[in-house]
Amino acid sequence: MSILSICLLSAWFGCSSENTPPVPQSIFQNPAYIDLLTSVDQRNIDAVIPYLSSKDWELRLFAYQQCASLKDTALYPSLLSALKDTVMIRKAAAFAIGQQEDTTLFDALSERYALEKDVNVQNALLQAMAKNLPLTQHVYFANLIASSPCEASPLWAAFRAMQSGAKNLTVIDKALANLHCDVVDARLAAAHYLSRTPGIDLTQSFHTLVKAYQEENNIDVKIALAGTFKKSNHPETGDWVISELQNTETDERIAANLLRAAQQQKWLTPSSLMVLCADPRPHIASMAASSIANIELPVDSLRSLAKSKNTSVAFGAAAKLPQKPGDLAQMIQDQTDLYQQVIGIRSLVNTNTERDFLESLLTSQHAPLRTAALETLLTYQKPEAEKYLLIASELNEDGQLAILGTYFAEHPEQVNDDIRSLLQQSADACSLPRMVETYNALINGLNASSDSVQAHYVFKGDNVPDYKILANFSDTISVAIHTSKGIIAVDLYPRIAPGTVAAFLKLVDSGFYDQKRFHRVVPNFVIQGGCPRGDGWGSSDDVIRSEFSAESYSTGAMGMASAGKDTESCQWFITHSPTPHLDGRYTLFGRVSSGMDIVREITEGDTIEKILY
Question: Is the pTM of this model over 0.70?
Fold first, then answer.
């Protein structure tokens, strides 16, 4: 087989002139790869380490890529040594070191960065330094970043450092300058740094941001730029944002970011709210509806909105109007779709109305109604949380117990001996690992109100995916997600997230996803589905580990929902636009190849009819 042929079969790994024998068409036909993955699944670090010195460079590279999902000091010698290996392995090792988030590794990374000649490896090292940045190196790192004009990597590094907890690492001037670079990724990095870095004030940069926004022709950059205006208190910002927001030709993802800024900064007026609640873009009207409770509107205006075809708007207005006891409950019950009822329940948040009706829903046969009712009741004055915990405990109701565990973690002063006993009994009754999210939430509730600290569930590697299902596929697996709005075509990446893809296909083969609903839709963020309960608190019987990679969450990336490291199961999401804050933190296992228009049209409650491949 020629070197070219090997390259075509190994696109993920790249081409190398190293003298190695031909590999099978699928790496999952090779027992060594399966043994390596099983060792990673079982957290058998001693069995993983020998693969890091394999003479087979592709197997060695694959082993270093797997290390990005492991945190163990026993890996450090091999990872640091690999920074002198081939280019591709140096990159993989640098990313894996960054995932360790250990400041003791910074000096070794810095020394290697100064010696590295390959620009791609330099960039990987810079990102790793950002994730392992000690407080004593903030000034040095800020100067290092500022010295590279019109480059994307330094600003992405600043972004990663902020994610990892670095403070006062401000390179605002460099980010503003990068907004005018010719390199798209440099502008994208600048826009995300400016929009997502907490604590920075862009008031003095308002006109610079407007100019950059108006001149920007890349949709991903423009979406991110829209998020920067929430950081400006310039007197012209509010009117400008509202004017741009009301232009219905504006992409709804841009509009979503502008609307979040307007809501956060309280720029909405009664007249602008009325316009936005009538917006033809469903996501924007629904987002606007959440402001009805906070803005005084004339009764006639509320009555007009209450007739809206948008359920969020109609219920938001109805909840603000004078109602007889039971009227809103009846409106909710009159909805024929379960998720429209959920929207109605959420409209009652902080209203202190229809308490009896909501309490009756705590034992509903429909999980989305049970959890929505509980979440709403907990926003009321003096919620009877102990009573609700008793009900949830008797039902062993996963979602309600998780919600209550989180509630008591945030309100430890309410935890008495009886509540503590119920929390402990409920935690002890959790079926693990399936109920890992519920268990950890209950432990949080216990720990917040006690001097003693109980450990969270730790992944034990007792569920090894069936990798044989991948043996007959190449680098990508094409699947078609048939939804009630149309077909979303996705390419899955078995080399990047083999355990996730194998587990996903197993569920697809069983028909698990048939007729599931998209229970969560966040405008300009994600659509999420695959929950067997339909409310986001459900899981399949198999819990799998996280599989982190250097792949970025660009538009249409498909990732696994997670309640923390190694808690993934069956729920997945697809991004509306780039979401770099998820990089290296959530398993990415595919991308939309066609059908992003469908992704953008999906609303809460839409159906996953079937998935085929």
Answer: yes
